[in-house]
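Comment thread on ticket #2218

A.B. wrote:
> Attaching the input chain for the structure job we discussed in standup.
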Amino acid sequence: MLWCPEFQEVVRLAMKVERAAATPKIIE
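C.D. wrote:
> Ran it. Output below, let me know if you need it in another format.
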């Protein structure tokens, strides 16, 4: 596994997207 700062940012964005998808109420 590559734990570079860029990879961590991608993981953070993916987690944010997952949270946003799980909580569409916040987006709307």
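A.B. wrote:
> Thanks. Noting for the ticket: The helical segments are 5-22, 24-27.
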